[in-house]
Write a structure and sequence with these properties.
single chain; about 850 residues; alpha+beta; seven-stranded mixed sheet; four-stranded parallel sheet; 29 helices; 34 strands; about 20% strand; binds ligand ANZ
Amino acid sequence: EQGYDFRRIQDHWLPVWDERKPFSTSDPDDKRPRKYVLDMFPYPSGDLHMGHAEAYALGDVIARYWRLQGFNVLHPIGWDSFGLPAEGAAIKRGIDPREWTYDNIAQQRASMRRYATSFDWDRVIHTSDPEYYTWNQWLFLKLYEKGLAYRKASWVNWCPFDQTVLANEQVIDGRCERCDNLVVKKKLTQWYFKITDYADRLLDDLNQLEGKWPSKVIAMQRNWIGRSVGADVDFVIEGHDEKVTVFTTRPDTLFGATFMVVAPDSELAAQLAAGSTPEVQSAFGEYLAQVQKSTEIERQDTTRAKTGIPLGRYAINPVNGERIPVWTADYVLADYGHGAVMAVPAHDQRDLDFARTFGLPIRVVVDVTAPITGAIPVITPEMIENPDEVRDLASMDPAVTGEALAGDGRMINSGPLDGLSKQNAIRRVIELLEEAGTGRAAKTFRLRDWLISRQRYWGTPIPILHTEDGREIPVAESALPVALPPSQGLDLQPKGTSPLGAAEDWVNVTLPDGTPARRDPDTMDTFVDSSWYFLRFLSPNDATQAFDVREAEKWAPVDQYVGGVTHAILHLLYARFITKVLFDLGYVTFTEPFTALLNQGMVLMDGSAMSKSRGNLVRLSEQLDEFGVDAVRLTMAFAGPPEDDIDWADVSPAGSAKFLARAWRLADDVASEPGIAFGNGDAALRRQTHRLLADAPGLVESFKFNVVVARLMELVNVVRKTIDSGAGAADPAVREASETVAVLLSLFAPYTAEDMWAKLGHDSLVALQSLPKPDARLLVEESVTAIVQVDGKVRDRLEVSPTIDSDELEALARASEAVARSVGDREIVNVIVRAPKVVNIATKP
Ligand code: ANZ
């Protein structure tokens, strides 16, 4: 494109922005209202890629938009720079993880700058800097003081390949989310954050986010937290001192409990087996060993044949005194509810499968054929196919059909509950249990406590000391940070224990009273780092505190968060949890960190995710070199709704570059001077400009960036036509339209827009303009003149909307008095309508 040289434009404007800092947020006297727009910060793995380019282009549209709307917009960037890949690279190359990390950061930072994202470069943070992780340690200590950080031995997810524990959230379908290897269970003493204390709030507060977060993400969070409501029921076990409590969502079926099952890997199972016969003890030992070899996926697979063994013990049903056998089986999980269930085979499919496998009794206690007023009847596909079939309970015997009766109905074989509906029976039995002191209403969550310790080097050291007699001593706040020692001389190879344990000089300490102690050798999950980073951006250089409460008051919570849907559960849940903890501790005044969330899609190539191994990798740097930053950014915004994936094979950065050149050239041809009054300009062009100004805010705020780009393209075409049509170049409407193009284009193509603005004669920066308000008078719909002919003669002219349809126009024509006079009493034989311009009426002569 003649004249338009993106390289020259980029080279010109980058230093200007560096010098003028239009995106700085450091002026304490800035009176503009504030907005906090945050992109999820990157992990420094190599250079920026196409996925980054998309995310940061879209986030920047939003940040730049609010600036044009007169806001002081905080749009910060930093690096999530602790974590495993740095360690892997360090092992492979025999270097310090720091080296790899900070080299990559430098590279990404340079790319990010060139990408012209409107970040405030004075607020950069790196989570691997001691200046940052000091406050991770502070946060840990705050949770520790509150009893929200604790250590326990339990069965944890262990990745045999990465040789590290994983949080439940990091196990996807039984595999390590990072390396895809099967995860096994290992009993280890680990640190946990007590996120389960916040389960109800994490769930209930999702209601506040409805409509502001993608509904899919809200649903995933709800499902992850997984609240089940029901009752705890206490059973006495013969010869066992402590009562055994089970959690059930169906306490109404208590009279149908015919056996009890405890998880084989629970403490309780071991105790019950130990108190049983030598035969049971040895059978139990074998069974447990077998269970521990199976994976989580196998255990939760409902189609797998049921296994289990009787423990030779009996439990007493608290409502009817019935003696039921206690079994152990691996379909019962140790870490859900109380790790034990009352088995009701007639009404629970897993229990039924188990009972049928081992010949245990099955007792129906809900007549699912009995009608329930006010309840939605259970309709099965069979009933729809065969509506006349009489439903009779005897024919539905689960022992015969193998189908548990899960539906609603009326209680039978249940003493005081007989005749009640499910809901009423649940209420009644809980009353009875509470009166007898043998049970109570209860709920259980799928959410587990957050396992935060990692046996790896490149992370935040846990600020706890251990004495030989087993005491935990938190490091004093004033002694923070517990600095990560150099990796030199440490074996970083994964081996199941932290490399820091071998850093003798570091790990051994002496308490003030002379007692020797050892530092905790584990480091924190990097999700701890990212759980509060949005607050550190508010006072990134504050050496005295994690964040300044007054700054948080001013800026937080984040108004708009932008990032990938891959973080729909983990990161967002942890950040929500830590925010609530900080709220409870009085450090913040809000309970949700991210008011609104936008999940951008992925950038694909030929329909699939890009990867080196697939050979379909598109290199961002090559795209930027070939088409320029603005063309790539514009392509990202123009590709479609931001939530959708972009297939790079289907879009055209070359086309974007062409459009940019076309827009930019308008500025060359505008003949009027800045400051000219627009009032006398071409009315049609002005109307188009003002309609875009009127629509743009709604479009941007609903993330329809692609529509704004399309509308800009239309406007550019019309301005070009007006200029080329002769005297147009001096028309004030041409300047008005061209300035509007520059201002709105600054959302997507900041270099081109800035250059255009300067060429239009302005000294100010386009990035700091305010979006002009549309003139309401120009928004009223224009009209066109339709001609009505009768037998070839013009009889009337009608002012109509340009979008009028044929039927409507014909009706108006027929209703015209002039037309009626001209037609007289002749018969109309034909009407041809070309909306909105012409109506031709033919009559029978
Ligand atoms: C008796 C019963 C009868 C049950 C019935 C269900 C249907 P959700 O909805 O997923 O929370 N359960 C309790 N603890 C368990 C554990 N540790 N491992 C495996 N299963 C466990 O499931 C709650 C139901 O799952 C509970 O209600 C219990 O079975 C079982 F007709 O109790 B129910």
